[in-house]
Amino acid sequence: MVQATAFLLVLFLALGAHGLSVKKCSLTGRWVNDLGSNMTIRTVNANGDFSGSYHTAVTATSNEIKLSPLQGSLQKGPNQKGQPTFGFTVNWSFSDAITVFTGQCFVDDDGKEVLKTMWLLRSHMENIKNDWKATRTGTNVFTRLQSQE
Ligand code: BTN
């Protein structure tokens, strides 16, 4: 009986320690993607809502690139296990387009946080006949920008 209790105690402590040591992926902070675009995500609130800013490295337009706002939502369900899914919208300040991103915040095998995303970029068309060419799609991978302390 004493042995069984001791065994369960050790098992409980081991599982607890493992649970504490598993790194979680957090969206808050500064990120850079494979195109060289930069993004800052401010605090995620209790509902999972967040805002931030996006500086794209590229544009489908000939306009001068400007810092643009983003609004997003993090999935807060019980099965996210520290690697949550999320979505956000960038409302471009310098063009008539909108981009929606959807993705998941992972911790990779080296313990590094990475955002794997897919996006839809909707450009504005003057005529419904051009709707067929209005939407581009692609993927972006974001890694955390280390602060320069
Ligand atoms: C536009 O060209 O009208 C607005 C800028 C779009 C930039 C796109 S959004 C998807 C892709 N990922 C980036 O970081 N930039 C491009």
TrEMBL record:
Coiled coil: none
Location of the protein in the cell: Secreted
Keyword Disulfide bond listed: yes
Keyword Cytoplasm: no
Leader sequence segment: 1-19
Gene3D superfamilies: Avidin-like
Keywords in alphabetical order: Biotin, Disulfide bond, Glycoprotein, Secreted, Signal
Pfam families given in the database record: Avidin (PF01382)
Disulfide bridges in this chain: 25-105
GO cellular component, one term: extracellular region
Record-level Gene Ontology MF annotations: biotin binding
PANTHER family registered for this protein in UniProt: AVID PROTEIN-RELATED, AVIDIN-RELATED
Family according to the record: Belongs to the avidin/streptavidin family.
Description of how the protein assembles with itself and partners: Homotetramer.
Function recorded in the entry: Forms a strong non-covalent specific complex with biotin.
Protein name: Avidin
Record gene name: Avd_1
